[in-house]
């Protein structure tokens, strides 16, 4: 009788231990998946913010190009949101932008050229939260037989990307 009860106690103890381990592993897996999903949303948000900054720089350089009489290069100057000493504007960034004959930032029609446009517009390294941003050039003639459809795509290795239509100056929203 005592042997049967001892065997039952061991079986019950083993069952309880296995149940505790399974519950613990399930909770940890759920927690890891939750955190991993949150970080991809942060990368998506960061890329969206960079796309907005990129679009603003493209638009500003175009209007500056118009205002300066359509030169080949414009100097895009960025100012802080608040005034400095003596109520003067505070310059935060100055970058030269090479312009096309249509008035949009340009570079060579290659992926390296797209990287150069990124550097001109954002003046920052091509990475987000430690992940490399890839620049890819897609020729409009190959896409739709229309040169105006040529785009630079800026993407993470997986997931979100945004595009810049090189000859039209349009920045297309971040997509998955």
Explain the overall architecture.
This protein has 176 residues and is α+β, with helices and mostly antiparallel strands. 47% of the residues lie in helices and 23% in strands. It contains 3 helices and 8 strands, in the order H-E-E-H-E-E-E-H-E-E-E. The chain has helices at 2-67, 111-122, 140-144; strands at 73-79, 91-98, 127-128, 131-132, 134-138, 151-155, 161-165, 170-175. The strands form 3 sheets. A 4-stranded antiparallel sheet has the order 5-6-7-8. A two-stranded antiparallel sheet has the order 1-2. A hairpin with a 5-residue loop joins strand 6 and strand 7 (161-165). It is elongated.
Summarize the SSE layout with pairings.
Elements: H1 2-67, E1 73-79, E2 91-98, H2 111-122, E3 127-128, E4 131-132, E5 134-138, H3 140-144, E6 151-155, E7 161-165, E8 170-175
Antiparallel strand pairs: 1-2, 3-4, 5-6, 6-7, 7-8
Looking at this protein, list some descriptive labels:
single chain; 176 residues; alpha+beta; 4-stranded antiparallel beta sheet; 8 strands
């Amino acid at each position: 009788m005592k042997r049967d009860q001892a065997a039952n106690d061991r079986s019950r103890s083993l069952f309880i231990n296995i149940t505790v381990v399974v519950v613990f592993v399930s909770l940890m897996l759920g927690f890891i998946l939750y955190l991993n999903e949150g970080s991809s949303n942060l990368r998506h948000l960061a890329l969206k913010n960079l796309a907005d900054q990129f679009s603003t720089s493209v638009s500003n350089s175009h209007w500056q190009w118009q205002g300066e009489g359509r030169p080949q290069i414009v100097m895009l100057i960025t100012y802080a949101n608040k005034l400095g000493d003596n109520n003067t504007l505070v310059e935060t960034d100055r970058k030269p932008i090479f312009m096309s004959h249509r008035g949009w930032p340009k570079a060579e029609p290659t992926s390296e050229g797209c990287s150069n446009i990124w550097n001109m517009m954002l003046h920052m390294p091509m990475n987000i939260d430690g992940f490399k941003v890839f620049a890819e050039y897609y020729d409009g003639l190959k896409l739709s037989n229309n040169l105006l459809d040529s785009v630079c795509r800026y993407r993470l290795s997986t997931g979100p990307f945004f595009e810049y239509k090189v000859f039209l100056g349009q920045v297309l929203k971040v997509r998955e």
